[in-house]
Amino acid sequence: MQRYTILGQSNYAIAIILDTLLTLHGPGLEVDIVSNIPPEDNDSLAYPYETPGVQTTVHFAAQWSPVAGERYLLGSIGKSRKAIVSYFREHFDIQPQQYDPLIHPGAIVAATAQLGNGVHISPGVVVAPYVRIGDFAVLNRMVSVGHHTRLDEYAALNPGVQVAGICHIGAGAVVGIGTAVVDKISIGADTIIGAGSVVTRSIPENVIAYGAPAKVVQSKA
Known about the structure:
It is built from two helices and 23 strands. The chain is α/β, with parallel strands linked by helices. The strands form four sheets. It has an eight-stranded mixed beta sheet with strand order 5-8-11-14-17-20-22-23, with helices on one face. It has a six-stranded parallel beta sheet with strand order 6-9-12-15-18-21, with no helix packed on it. It has a five-stranded parallel beta sheet with strand order 7-10-13-16-19, with no helix packed on it. The chain is globular and about 50 Å long.
């Protein structure tokens, strides 16, 4: 029987992760979910994640111990990713290289693409040749990433984002639903690009930008 351990419990993400695992392996999976925050602080618990064919057990980190050599999946594809990784590194010395990437079989990933630790790739994603994707980056459903583009750690491309070739998406940047990014564009670290934007020129770090063409509207500092 195939077993997995998921660190962190964002129920939005858990439902997607379990569906991907079921698609990869079929029924009969056993999955341990290790929550790093108490239920009263977890606003995602109102959403179901139970998946037919997958047996899940929830543990709380205070009563859990890692097993030597075990591999993990990250239980978030949203803004809590960095906090979860930091928590389990601080409390259990679990390092980024212990997280596996999770790629839905409905995605197309070029043989020359380089994937970091804990990367999440959803159905319908296309990753072109020589793309480099940093640790814990997320490519949500129906995203396309062009050749020789680089995504740094914790970058997030939301559903329907189209990134052309030779682009650079900085660490922690978030690109909103349905955005188009033209060739040779850089988006700075921790910047947010609003949904439906068209990015025709490079955007600096730590700002909010949106529009067609996208323009900086606010600093996050």
